[in-house]
Design goal:
- By secondary structure, the chain is an alpha/beta fold.
- The chain is 30% helix and 25% strand.
- The strands form five sheets. Strands 1, 2, 3, 4, 5, 6 and 17 form a seven-stranded mixed beta sheet that branches. Strands 8-15-9-10-11 form a five-stranded parallel beta sheet. A five-stranded antiparallel beta sheet has the order 18-19-22-21-20, with helices on both faces.
- α7 (215-227) links the parallel β10 and β11.
- Residues 477-482 have low confidence and may be disordered.
- It binds 1,4-dihydronicotinamide adenine dinucleotide.
């Protein structure tokens, strides 16, 4: 029987990062994944392929709708979707091959098949050919990820009614695409197919899109996406999807109880994801789940089963690749007696639309709900020189700080490259720095990052490029506890 210090079940961002950290710390490590390649959802059917398509489709959109104002005349611009998909697939291939190399380099045993924990420290590996092998692990980590959530009464046939798995590889541009759910997946993939020529309608049951950001941010995003041709139906619930001759009819109801009926050739269900544990543990093991159906863990990622740990999408918290990666590292470091740590108050969240939306820490909405007083500094890109030169002047930076200490509490950015501008705020938040720390740091000119500096200065009415708008501390709904 093969025996290891550590067996990791699942080769996504949580699993492969944990396995590499374990190998670095000298643990004899094995990683099991049922797929032919490592990388999990993020690399294969999530973050990476969607970013490849977002860029390609944005180029097409630029050529068709924006290039002329730069004096660039593209005639007969057309789409070769097969080539676009090929490029996306080659990006994915390069990264997944890179991961196999990393496993070899770190002397991690790569095992193919389905791993099942049958007893503490005991894993049965079932290979593709049906043969089984028993493995022994001093520690076992579950990192089996998540799959798209479904809606009751709506059959996902993976042809007409699809999840993000399929919507990353349509062979043709749908003429009409209905997206259910205006979260990260719905907005990103809705953007891709809208730019490629589909008529896209996004249905969302909440009163606003991307509801985890503040309303001023989401309203700006909605307007920008509407200007690019996406239609939104808010406060609307989808009740059924009927299929006939490869065409779908989506039925729903809005807040005013008015019925709606929409025809579509593809319907993308993007209403969240659910933890995936199928076959990973036996019932007899008695693995404890939380009320929300995630694996229950303590602060060291230990489950109720001895020496069995869980990380990533299967435990509580946002289902984000970077959260999963950091849990992989922290879990292994704590297992090895080191001080691994994830700061759950400083996990960035990004939607890679155009404009991008990125946020970290406290939002104004959350501050109001929790009765926390905040001071807010906002700065628009429309007066930022680089943004204007870049023809990317939509959006703004919003910084939230403690009115008493000026400690930075949160940041949201909507604008071109927001994902790359946010980390400055994440770092300052992590280090417990102040808005003034950002405002008094030299930022290269001309860069869009100057808008981050100016928003930080605007917290104390010191912004340079716009007349300061006096804001003062915003009244909290409840007096802050201090
Ligand atoms: P989500 O939870 O972000 O958004 C789902 C949306 O669907 C919500 O706004 C919800 O109100 C709405 N919804 C739910 N049921 C509905 C119904 N019956 N009718 C209409 N609307 C309904 O989930 P999403 O976008 O599917 O993403 C899944 C996970 O993957 C999330 O945790 C997300 O953070 C992560 N992800 C992150 C990305 C990123 O960081 N850029 C990209 C893609 C996914």
């Amino acid at each position: 029987m093969a025996s290891f210090d550590l067996i990791v079940l699942g080769g996504g961002p949580a699993g492969y990062t944990g396995a590499i950290r374990a190998a670095q710390l000298g643990l004899n490590t094995a990683i099991i994944d049922k797929g032919d390649v490592l990388g999990g959802t993020c690399l294969n059917i999530g973050c990476i392929p969607s970013k490849a398509l977002l860029l390609s489709s944005d180029h097409l959109h630029f050529a068709r709708h924006k290039a002329a104002r730069h004096g660039l005349i593209f005639e007969n611009v057309s789409l070769d979707l097969t080539q676009m998909m090929k490029r996306k697939d080659s990006v994915v291939r390069q990264l997944t091959q890179g991961l196999e190399f990393l496993m070899k380099k770190n002397k991690i045993t790569r095992l193919f098949g389905i791993g099942q924990v049958v007893a503490p420290g005991k894993v049965i590996l079932t290979k593709k050919d049906g043969s089984q092998e028993e493995l022994q692990g001093k520690h076992v980590v579950l990192a089996t990820g998540s799959v798209p959530a479904e809606l009751p009464n709506i059959l996902i046939d993976r042809q007409s009614v699809v999840t993000s798995d399929e919507a990353l590889s349509f062979a043709q541009v749908p003429s009409e695409l209905v997206v259910v759910g205006a979260g990260a997946i719905g907005l990103e993939l809705g953007s891709v197919w809208s730019r490629l020529g589909a008529k896209v309608t996004i249905i969302e049951f909440l009163p606003r899109i991307a509801a985890f950001f503040d309303p001023d941010v989401t309203q700006t995003l909605q307007k920008a996406l509407e200007a690019d041709g996406i239609k939104f139906l808010l406060e609307t619930t989808v009740t059924s999807v009927a299929l006939s001759n490869g065409k779908a009819t989506v039925e729903g109801m809005n807040k005013a109880k008015e019925k709606l009926q929409l025809g579509a050739d593809k319907v993308l269900i993007a209403v969240g994801r659910k933890p995936y544990l199928e076959g990973a543990v036996t019932k007899d093991l008695g693995l404890k789940l939380t009320d929300r159906g995630r694996v229950a863990v303590d602060e060291r990622y230990r489950t109720n089963v001895p020496e069995l740990y869980a990380i990533g999408d299967i435990i509580e918290g946002p289902m984000l690749a970077h959260k999963a990666e950091d849990e992989g590292v922290a879990c292994i470091e704590r297992m090895a007696g080191k001080a691994g740590h994830v700061n759950y108050d400083a996990i960035p969240n990004v939607i890679y639309t155009n404009p991008e939306v990125a946020g970290v820490g406290l939002t104004e909405d959350l501050a109001r709900q929790k009765g926390i007083a905040v001071k807010i500094g906002k700065f628009p890109f429309v007066v930022n020189g680089r943004a204007l030169a870049n023809d990317q002047s939509q959006g703004f930076v919003k910084i939230l700080a403690d009115p008493r200490t000026d400690k930075l509490l949160g940041a949201q950015i909507i604008g071109f490259g927001a994902s790359e501008l946010l980390p400055e705020a994440v770092t300052v938040l992590e280090f417990g720095g102040s808005a003034e720390d950002v405002g008094k740091t030299v930022h290269a000119h001309p860069t869009m990052s100057e808008a981050v500096k100016e928003a930080a200065l605007a917290v104390s009415n010191q912004a340079f490029s716009i007349p300061p708008v006096p804001q003062g501390p915003r009244p909290a709904a409840v007096a802050p506890e201090r």
